[in-house]
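Design a sequence for this backbone.
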């Protein structure tokens, strides 16, 4: 049960309704999260706005970003984000068994670049102050410096979403788990 009530359009101040409706449309499927985050119109505007603007202009593939998001969310144990982004990753062609074991080192089913992104996401999430220099050497083989900064921001932003979701007890949207199972994903490891 969420720790604060979900807001509907009628609960939102008139001057904030356009942003609320915009993000409900852009991030359809995340209704429970948006209805809670809308308690803080400025927070909602900038968190969702940053997420949307970065993804719109990204030169990093959506699949790589989603691997980073899912790995960080598994590391943070944020079921809400794991389930939502696992569904996206399956749609992007990653096999369900690979996703449910994404934090395991030496993962089969991932390319060298995908393993690197996963490892970097886990490292940034776990101990950002202690990211191994050798990881950056490897990252620079695949990514520009701008892309490394973007990837790092996306991983850190995921951590912020994870923590807010967990602290506020944001619940899964109805039917989401069934939808996930229909894509062949076991919910045991989520």
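Sequence:
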């Amino acid at each position: 049960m969420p720790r604060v009530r979900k807001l509907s359009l009628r609960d939102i101040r008139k001057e904030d309704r356009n942003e609320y409706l915009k993000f409900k449309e852009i991030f359809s499927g995340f209704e429970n999260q948006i209805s809670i985050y809308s308690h803080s119109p400025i927070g909602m505007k900038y968190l969702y706005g940053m997420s949307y603007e970065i993804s719109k202009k990204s030169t990093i593939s959506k699949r790589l970003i989603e691997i980073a998001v899912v790995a960080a969310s598994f590391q943070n144990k944020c079921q809400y984000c794991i389930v939502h982004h696992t569904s996206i990753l399956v749609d992007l062609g990653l096999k369900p068994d690979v996703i449910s074991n994404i934090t395991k080192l030496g993962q089969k089913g991932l390319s060298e670049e995908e393993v690197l992104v996963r490892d970097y996401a886990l490292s940034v999430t776990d101990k950002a102050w202690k990211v191994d220099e050798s990881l950056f050497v490897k990252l620079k083989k695949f990514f520009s410096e701008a892309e490394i900064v973007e990837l790092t921001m996306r991983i850190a932003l995921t951590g912020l979403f994870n923590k807010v979701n967990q602290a506020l007890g944001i619940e899964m949207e109805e039917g989401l788990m069934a939808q996930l199972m229909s894509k062949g994903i076991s919910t045991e490891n989520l």
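Residues 9-57 form one domain.
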